[in-house]
Amino acid sequence: MWTIENRGRYDRSKLRYPSDLTDEEWALVEPLIPAGKRGGGKRTVVLREVVNGLMYVLSTGCQWRAVPKDLPPRSTLFGYFDLWNWDGTLGRLHAELYVKCREAMGREASPTAAVIDSQSVKGAEKGGPCIDPCGYDAGKKIKGKKRHILVDTVGLLLNALVHPADIQDRDGGALVLRTLFGRYPFLTKLFADGGYQGPIFAKAQKKARPGLNTEIVKRSDAAKGFEILPRRWVVERTFAWLGRCRRLAKDLENLSTNALAFLKLASIRLMLRRLCAN
Fold this sequence. Notes:
six-stranded mixed beta sheet, 6 strands
């Protein structure tokens, strides 16, 4: 928790950019980055600077061509970003840091309860509509993409998907559960809002995770104004945490796979700072 007493632990003013990794953060990341391929010339790229460059783009939301000159070229940054997204490096890094965060909090590595929700994000002017088309969310009146996330009860990201905004929560939620691929085998409880109620999601949930019990947390009809709902506030707080990264302020990516990669990178950034601030 941010207080006056522990404010010094979050001070990044001595770094070149606030988005740069500290020595402690890099010590967690470095062992999880795969070595270069055998044969050919020796790798000359400084991988720590590559990660710093990706964190700079994520934190500031700048265009690739606007990356400062003291960071690696945009072609190098995007090349490693695309490679690590394709070969699963980001996923492995996220999984390792997630286990470390759970253990640091004195919890089991695999959670037993989760919360699911979605966030519609307005699309920016960009290419890619013929490959990854956007959609229109009639409820939120937003044209763009929808981020669907599954978090544990402390707000750490378990799984996520990015899809057109016109896909209903019940259908997108089923995709999120189906893409868990056997991870988190001890999940037995799922908390969701009213958008996931009904036989369609229930049938898809039983097919994807038969041992999972879904509880719909509804807002009281008598409630007026803002109301904190049990469990549902956890996933909303996670969206707020991820929203600190300006690259996620809008849907800026041509491909949904790249948008999902930045979402994972934002979660990695969050867990790194949490682990190294204790």
